[in-house]
């Protein structure tokens, strides 16, 4: 829910969000793809840090904890999360669970 909420929050009103789910190499994989503002390369490595917010002027919502919680839960379940992003093009969050 957090990943979908972020995709909505950081996309334009008429933008689309794509959710792909599939099974590969004994893992369930879910991709959340948005075509919003993207994440700067310098911020990619930090978005999973507690209280880190890419740009506080973009939104007054949130405290920089959502992605940390998502990553912690996934790791406790033996899963992982990754992100790829191109500014003003698309962002893809990939979740893998055994």
In a few lines, what is going on in this structure?
This protein has 98 residues and is an alpha+beta fold. It contains three helices and four strands. A hairpin with a 2-residue loop joins strand 1 and strand 2.
Task: Please explain how this structure is put together.
With 98 residues, the chain is of the alpha+beta class. 23% of the residues lie in helices and 32% in strands. Strands 1-2-4-3 form a four-stranded antiparallel beta sheet, with helices on one face. The model has no long low-confidence stretch (mean pLDDT 86).
Strand content: 25-35%
Biggest β-sheet description:
4 strands, antiparallel
User: How many strand units?
Assistant: 4
Number of helices: 3
Strand numbers in spatial order across the main sheet: 1-2-4-3
Secondary structural class: alpha+beta
Proportion of residues in helical segments: 10-25%
> Terminal Cα separation, in Å?
19 Å
Q: Given the C-alpha coordinates, what overall shape results? A: globular
SSE succession: HEEHHEE
Ranges where pLDDT stays below 50 over 5 or more residues in a row are none
Rg, rounded, reads 13 Å
Estimate the mean pLDDT confidence. 86
